[in-house]
């Protein structure tokens, strides 16, 4: 677990690993989406605009779900923390960001009159690859540690991890983010590859 990427001295500002990997997931996913959309003859600029709206919605969604999931344990007694710098520096909840991104995608695609299925074809690999990177952020933050296991692939978290998230340190855990990262990477690669292959009766795309 590696929750803090680095600190800036003198101003005591911390760059969280989760936030960095979340940004990397978005940039990588958007690059893949734009390239696949261009290979299909779509307007790349509209796809990038869609991606920016998705980014804004995902940030809002991740923060809102974090408030909901931690309301009873923290924010009910500390409501002012919602407006603090620490709140905005925190990564939020990945699935809240994912849900916000889906909602924004549907609305913006309808406004821009983007073709639903062709745009979805371009977005699917990028989403899977972004999911893979985002789940590494969850693992680095020490959340979603999974069930105890005695298997060789179990993860033994450190005492620092216990101090931050409360993860038990006496046993190994089958970390959920790592499992999802592996499957999302494979799915993203498979979708990206299949996106470049079409039946002969369909209009051929430019090379991916």
Briefly, what is this?
It contains eight helices and four strands. It has helices spanning 17-39, 44-69, 71-75, 85-89, 94-112, 116-141, 159-165, 176-195; strands at 4-8, 13-16, 147-149, 172-174.
What does this structure look like?
By secondary structure, this protein is mostly helical. The chain has one domain. The chain has helices spanning 17-39, 44-69, 71-75, 85-89, 94-112, 116-141, 159-165, 176-195; strands spanning 4-8, 13-16, 147-149, 172-174. It has a two-stranded antiparallel sheet with strand order 1-2. Strand 1 and strand 2 (13-16) form a beta hairpin. The longest helix has 26 residues, at 44-69. The radius of gyration is 19 Å and the shape is globular. The model has no long low-confidence stretch (mean pLDDT 78).
């Amino acid at each position: 677990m590696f929750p803090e990427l680095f600190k800036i001295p003198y101003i005591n500002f911390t760059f969280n690993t989760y936030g960095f990997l979340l940004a990397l997931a978005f940039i990588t996913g958007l690059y893949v989406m734009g390239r696949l959309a261009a290979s299909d003859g779509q307007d790349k600029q509209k796809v990038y605009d869609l991606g920016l709206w998705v980014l804004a919605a995902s940030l809002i969604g991740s923060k809102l779900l974090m408030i909901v999931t931690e309301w009873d344990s923290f924010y009910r007694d500390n409501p002012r923390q919602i407006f603090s710098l620490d709140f905005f520096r925190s990564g939020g909840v990945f699935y809240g960001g994912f849900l916000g991104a889906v909602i924004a995608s549907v609305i913006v695609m309808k406004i821009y009159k983007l073709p639903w299925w062709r745009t979805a074809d371009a977005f699917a690999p990028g989403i899977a690859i972004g999911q893979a990177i985002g789940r590494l952020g969850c693992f680095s933050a020490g959340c979603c540690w999974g069930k105890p296991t005695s298997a060789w692939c179990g993860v033994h978290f450190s005492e620092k991890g216990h101090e931050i998230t409360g993860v038990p340190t006496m046993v190994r855990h089958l970390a959920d983010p790592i499992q999802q990262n592996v499957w999302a990477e494979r799915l993203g690669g498979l979708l990206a590859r299949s996106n470049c292959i079409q039946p002969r009766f369909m209009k051929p795309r430019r090379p991916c």
